[in-house]
Amino acid sequence: MNSKYNRLFKASTREGNFWPAFTDILATILLVILLILITLMFTKQQQIEGKEKEVQEKEEIIDSLVGYERGMIEQLSMAFQQEGVDVQVDKESGAIKFDSDLLFDYNKSDLKPEFKQQLKQIIPVYASVLLNEKNRDKIDAILIEGHTDSDGSYMYNLELSQDRAFSIVRYILSDEFGDFPHKDALREKISAIGKSESHPILVDGQEDMDQSRRVELKFRLSMNEQMEGVLSDLNEKTQ
Fold first, then answer.
1. Beta strands in the chain (DSSP E)
2. Rounded to 5, what percent of the chain is helix, strand, coil?
3. Superfamily (CATH) of domain 73-230
4. Which residues cross the membrane (predicted)?
5. How many other C-beta atoms can be found within 10 angstroms of the C-beta atom of residue 24?
6. pLDDT, tens digit, for every residue of 22-71?
């Protein structure tokens, strides 16, 4: 009888030692899991904060570049106003648009005399702002873009728009136009580009044929490439 009770007592004692040991191990495992989860959450939070900070920095760079471009556009507008030159500078793009029907005869690329006189008023002021010593290095290109309406074939319109743009550049750089400050710098920056009918002016979703026939004088900042890179990075970060 005594041996029977002794066996039961010993068995009970062994079970009592087992359960506290098991709960200690379980508590340790749970604690390790909890620490891992806390570490992962902390790391994730740091990644999110780092990503948000990088996005903010990219946005600040873009704001700075856009602000500089807007400043250039304002300088142009003020300079034309001070010189009494009647010309409209697009507040968003900085482009100056000319009606092709006033510049050229129908289907021709020879400049009309009255437009030559207009260019003599505009170009020296334009160059004095964009190509002075302060701004010159920040200007990548001065562009003369010819545009047509969709009447006729694309290739015919491409040739016509290119010829018209080239006709303007050739006149500006000619002896007939005369000298003006920063003409040599303009010669290095200016380009003639034909766009054919690829960029029509739309009104209520329909092409405005008269407005589409135009020539645009515009500038491109050397920082535009930097801006495109920043925008590309920003798009990747926000996706």
1. 96-99, 139-147, 190-194, 202-203, 206-207, 214-221
2. 65, 15, 25
3. OmpA-like domain (3.30.1330.60)
4. 21-42
5. 10
6. 677 777 788 878 888 888 887 777 777 666 666 565 655 555 566 678 88
